[in-house]
Amino acid sequence: MNAVEIEEAISALAERPFDADEFPYAFLEAFGNKETTLKRLRKGESNKSDLGGVLQTNNIHIATCKPGEVTRTLIALKTSPATARAKARFVLATDGELFEAEDLTIDDAPVSCTYADFPNHFGFFLPLAGITTVKQVRESSFDIRATSRLNRLYVELLRDNPEWGTAQRRHDMNHFMARLIFCFFAEDTDIFNGIGVFTSAIEKMSAKGSSNTHEVISELFRAMNTKATERVAAGIPRWADGFPYVNGGLFSGSTDVPRFSRIARSYLLHIGSLDWKKINPDIFGSMIQAVADDDERGALGMHYTSVPNILKVLNPLFLDDLREKLAEAGDNARMLLNLRKRMSKIRVFDPACGSGNFLVIAYKEMRAIEAEINRLRDEADQRTEIPLTNFRGIELRDFPAEIARLALIIAEYQCDVLYRGQKEALRDFLPLDAQNWITCGNALRLDWLSICPPTGTGVRHHADDLFHTPLNQAQIDFENEGGETYICGNPPYIGGKKQSAEQKSDLAAIFSGGQHKNLDYVCGFVVKACRFIDSFDKAALVTTNSINQGTHVPVLWPEVFRANCELEFAYAPFKWANNAANNAGVSCTILGLRVRKPGAKYIYNGNTRREVSNISPYLVEGPDRIVQSETKPISGLSKMITGNAAYDGGHLFLDSHEAQALRGSFPEISGNIRPVLGTSEFIDGILRFCLWFNDDELDFAASHPAVAPRIASVRSYRETGGDVARTLISRPHQFRYRHEATRCQILVPQVSSERREYLPVGYMSGDAIITHLGHAIYDPTLVDLSVLSSKLHLTWVSTICGKLETRLRYASNLGWNTFPVPILTDKNRVDLIRCAENILLAREAHFPATIAELYDPATMPDDLRAAHDRNDEVLERIYIGRRFKNDTERLEKLFDLYIKMMTGSSNATKRRMAATA
Known about the structure:
Layout (H helix, E strand, L loop, with lengths): L2 H13 L7 H8 L4 H9 L10 E3 L3 E5 L5 H10 L1 H5 L4 E5 L3 E6 L7 E4 L20 H5 L1 H20 L9 H19 L8 H9 L7 H12 L6 H4 L27 H11 L8 H9 L17 H23 L3 H12 L2 E4 L6 H20 L14 E5 L2 H23 L1 H8 L8 E3 L7 H4 L33 E5 L11 H8 L13 H11 L5 E7 L7 H11 L2 E7 L2 E2 L11 E9 L5 E5 L2 E5 L28 E2 L10 E3 H10 L7 E5 L1 H6 L3 E4 L6 H6 L4 H12 L3 H4 L17 E6 L1 E2 L9 E4 L3 E2 L3 E5 L3 H7 L2 H10 L2 E2 L2 E3 L2 H5 L9 H19 L6 H4 L7 H19 L6 H16 L5 H8 L2
Helix pairs in contact: 1-2, 1-7, 7-12, 7-13, 8-17, 9-10, 13-16, 13-17, 14-15, 14-16, 15-16, 16-17, 17-18, 28-31, 29-34, 31-33
């Protein structure tokens, strides 16, 4: 269940007559507990309560009680030994009139309210559903409740007005919803000269059967778009005349309203009864945009970008600098005034703004700084000099673009109330400004300079409709020209394989030479940002960490450098997670870009910040050197290649039962049945086999009764296959590639879990066949195994090769062939061989445990961990004479050695390359 669905279930529970016996089970059901779970609780099989209530292990202890006993019951629940034994996080007591609850794991204030109001606190209990949300979502019960109601209204209206859901009218429907949101907010904040007047007018003037509800709303919208002096001539009815003139384009254009059913009218009145003063534009916009998106509606409330994450972008981009200048100014009136003037000219531009979260947070933070300036200058009533038109965005879809503009309008009003008082805020709020600063369009196709020019363009554009700006004419003058521009945001990532043809074309328009094909979509935003900014501007974008790894680096970063840009700051990769129960947990970083110039640079890791001389494309301290793939190892290590691809349709492969049966019935082909290993077979201990014939054994295989049908199937598969398959028709008894060892071999998995502390590398006899789903070193040395098994190599590969989703993706040409190793003495080799042997002996001691079991961080045997640790110590001392302190130090040393080797500063490079020739 998502947060909105839970809110709906909780609200329904609160509206039903209170049933003391049934309440605990109904409460748990509302948070997604299945009927089988509830049955076990009812029977007492899993109910651990010692107070006659319901106690669910690791979750909650609930008890109902007689009137007036709620507080005493809650104390009993908290002190209950059963609560402690079951490690219950929550305790809850209610008598149907009063409702009290507490989270025993954190210091947040307990919930205490009337029973009817407990749905307002449903966010407090979201962990019961496995939803460990960011704090803002958990505390924003209103925003989720409002979204839930609007979603139900939206769906009901489309059911009764299907034409409004078509492509031709979807914009009208979304615009209608934006108007409603504004009206609900305005009627609860005195903007409409009274509380609840919009909802009240609809309730009084429309028939209970809803036959004229759409007409009443249409007249209200028409009134809000008609100046007071023109209303008599326009025929505005008396009951609508009390509403103020809003204009600003919000109510311009068509005032068509979809028809309302009785149910839809009821939903509308219910929405209006909510307290819209509590709306939080930081989060509401992200949730409400999902109302209009069929694909996202199932995850309502789950697409919120947290304020702490947004501030990771905005603080180092420019807010920290403003706060530092504020501190430097102290109470110096002139310096404070200069800072205020500077802020009035700052433009914040989000080229993929969605519903405007980054812009709203930037605006609110800047208003807070401005308010402090005004306080220090004794000008608390000063009207803001920070215009909304300086907060500009581009959004591909029209509804989020509308909501972004609306969220900023609401944020401005709320800031005015907070810093100047409601009277002053109301005086300056209406009519709305008609300028449009959020453009709906494709950001990778639009000219950013026309959306956010460095100075006025001489073209002042006023849209006919506030939210319907033509894509080819989005220029407006800024109220304040000549200031800095800061690009920020969280653009869409979209890996190369998941991009549509249009998205591929978008990237092709930015990158030349066809090198864009495997790039993440976000790379287009990085390059356009670099081409946009000049010496006074900066950019900070949330990106996938993949653009600082693997094959992305040699394609993307030369474009960044050609634009004369560099990294001013960067975050080490972290999970951009908004909701633990329903989140892919994408590994992201934040890149702060500027025009190349002297000045401090910083790498952030969690809550720590480190000043560095330069930030490389791999997000470590070092020069802007890009690691290029190599055809053979630069360090004199053994050659690694990809394993054997079959191109056989699976007909040459056998499971363990098939292999055993063939060996038993046809011993003459036992030698042709070979164990086969790829990544999954090796890691998970899966037994698979293959038929392996030499070049001169085709006639034997094709005539053997057990093998011939398989050979025929392979031939048929290749005859109907692609170009590569058809070249193999003449040898249907063989894999496409035929690499094998004479004595032993190393298998390196192509993909491995990011949880593992070491790369799980296989060392095995030469009879096994390694498939193309693994990398192979044939007849290696144990020095190779020692290097592959080290933290040093894992750290290098994690950075250079990149990830598949969050898993480590190994590439021999980038990870192995480029790995820098100092010149090894004979003693170094002996020590490393002994370490590799100890790792293998430790694995063998735990036979038949699989590699997956041995290398699970939670269950890794102590002796195996100790063997790896000793291997790390021996290898790292070869590099710097001691253990490395952390991965950052490891990478910086590896890059330093790599650059020396590749620039020829070390004669060892030539010797190593010659040794592998």
